[in-house]
Design brief:
With 132 residues, this protein is mainly alpha-helical. 72% of the residues lie in helices and 8% in strands.
Length: 132
C-alpha cells in the first residue's frame, strides 16, 4: 500500500510541477505583453523606423510579415491623419506622373501647385499645435 501511495503522490507532484511551470511561462509572457503595451507609445518611433517588415521563406512558401506598427497601431487606436494621407497620396500621384510624362508636362505642374497649396495649409493649420 505504501508503494502505491508513493507512486500516486509522485505522479501528482509531477503533474503539479508541470502545471506550475506552464503557469509561470504564461505569467512571464503576460508580463512581457504588459511591458510592451506600456512602452509602445513612448517608443513608437523606434518600432516604426527600426523594426520593419520581414520577408520569410519557409518550405518554399514566401510570406511578408508586416511592420509591428501596422499591426499594433489599430489596437492602440492610432489612425493616420487624413490630411497627411491625402498629401502622401498626392506625392505618389506626382511620382507616377513624373515617371510617365517627365517634369515639364502640364499635369506635373498642376500637381506641384496642388502640393504647394497642401503644404501651405499643413503649415498654417498645424493639427498638432495643441500638443505644445
Amino acid at each position: 500500500m505504501a508503494v502505491l501511495a508513493k507512486k500516486r503522490s509522485s505522479k501528482s507532484k509531477r503533474r503539479n510541477l508541470l502545471f506550475e511551470k506552464v503557469m509561470a511561462m504564461i505569467t512571464v509572457a503576460n508580463l512581457g505583453l504588459v511591458l510592451f503595451d506600456l512602452s509602445y507609445i513612448p517608443w513608437r518611433n523606434f518600432y516604426l523606423f527600426n523594426i520593419g517588415g520581414v520577408r520569410v521563406e519557409l518550405f518554399g512558401f514566401q510570406a511578408q510579415i508586416p511592420r509591428l506598427t501596422d499591426i499594433y497601431d489599430p489596437i492602440k487606436g492610432i489612425e493616420p491623419y487624413r490630411d497627411t494621407v491625402a498629401y502622401l497620396e498626392k506625392v505618389e500621384q506626382l511620382k507616377a506622373q513624373v515617371a510617365d510624362q517627365g517634369l515639364r508636362s502640364p499635369q506635373v505642374t498642376a500637381t506641384l501647385a496642388e502640393l504647394r497649396e497642401l503644404s501651405d495649409q499643413m503649415v498654417d493649420t498645424n493639427p498638432f499645435a495643441w500638443l505644445t
